[in-house]
Amino acid sequence: AQSVTQLDSHVSVSEGTPVLLRCNYSSSYSPSLFWYVQHPNKGLQLLLKYTSAATLVKGINGFEAEFKKSETSFHLTKPSAHMSDAAEYFCVVSLYGGSQGNLIFGKGTKLSVKP
Amino acid sequence: GAGVSQSPSNKVTEKGKDVELRCDPISGHTALYWYRQSLGQGLEFLIYFQGNSAPDKSGLPSDRFSAERTGGSVSTLTIQRTQQEDSAVYLCASSPPLAASTDTQYFGPGTRLTVL
């Protein structure tokens, strides 16, 4: 069965410092993995996705994530945080691997960025 | 182009009343999903439509919840005899046809439902 665990419910960083949001997954299949971002009172926006083409995935707004099969991890990183990065981030695994179906969402990590 | 739209953006209702939430997916998208996001919780899958196939209703929490998709496009989520625990943000998403070889979902802004 597929599942996803976001290890931190809240992360706080200072502007200009690196961001690390941690995610571990469990999947019986070769998973599709995603990171979505949700700004306050806004809809969910896709940041990036992994579908086995490359283990290091680059997304929008300078974010990237690395798929590590041995660690069953898909952590999200950014070298330098910006105030506009403050939002909630969701790590997601596709239930049916590469085919369509419903998504399993982590409980989310709220990122705060201090000036 | 136009994204997924949902209406109303906010709905306040009294316990016991029925509500209908609407979702307009991106044109040409064959798959449509409903999720529920409760305060402090992650997203909870409710139901999934794919083309003309029978919907996957495995996430509906009770028989008070139902959804339909007319003409393979617009979808309505109906909650009958609403309860206070139904209060949440209801999100709709759509994704391209299977032939597009992608399972990326595009989300609407959600409907915030408050049951008093």
Give an account of the 3D structure.
The complex is a heterodimer of chains A (115) and B (116). The termini of chain A are far apart. Chain A has strands spanning 3-6, 10-14, 19-21, 23-26, 33-38, 44-50, 56-58, 64-68, 73-78, 87-94, 103-105, 109-114. In chain A, the strands form 3 sheets. In chain A, strands 2, 5, 6, 10, 11 and 12 form a 6-stranded mixed sheet that branches. Chain A is globular, with a radius of gyration of 13 Å. With 115 residues, chain A is mainly beta. Chain B is mainly β and 116 residues long. Chain B is 0% helix and 46% strand. Chain B has no helices and 10 strands. Chain B has strands spanning 5-7, 10-13, 19-24, 31-37, 43-50, 65-69, 75-79, 88-95, 106-107, 111-115. In chain B, the strands form 2 sheets. In chain B, strands 2, 4, 5, 8, 9 and 10 form a 6-stranded mixed sheet that branches. In chain B, strands 1-3-7-6 form a 4-stranded antiparallel sheet, with no helix packed on it. In chain B, strand 6 and strand 7 form a beta hairpin. Chain B is globular, with a radius of gyration of 14 Å. The relative contact order of chain B is 0.33. Chains A and B meet through strand 6 and strand 11 of A and strand 4, strand 5, strand 8 and strand 9 of B.
Task: Give a topology summary.
The complex is a heterodimer of chains A (115) and B (116).
Chain A: E1 3-6, E2 10-14, E3 19-21, E4 23-26, E5 33-38, E6 44-50, E7 56-58, E8 64-68, E9 73-78, E10 87-94, E11 103-105, E12 109-114
Parallel strand pairs in A: 2-12
Antiparallel strand pairs in A: 1-4, 3-9, 5-6, 5-10, 7-8, 8-9, 10-11, 10-12
Chain B: E1 5-7, E2 10-13, E3 19-24, E4 31-37, E5 43-50, E6 65-69, E7 75-79, E8 88-95, E9 106-107, E10 111-115
Parallel strand pairs in B: 2-10
Antiparallel strand pairs in B: 1-3, 3-7, 4-5, 4-8, 6-7, 8-9, 8-10
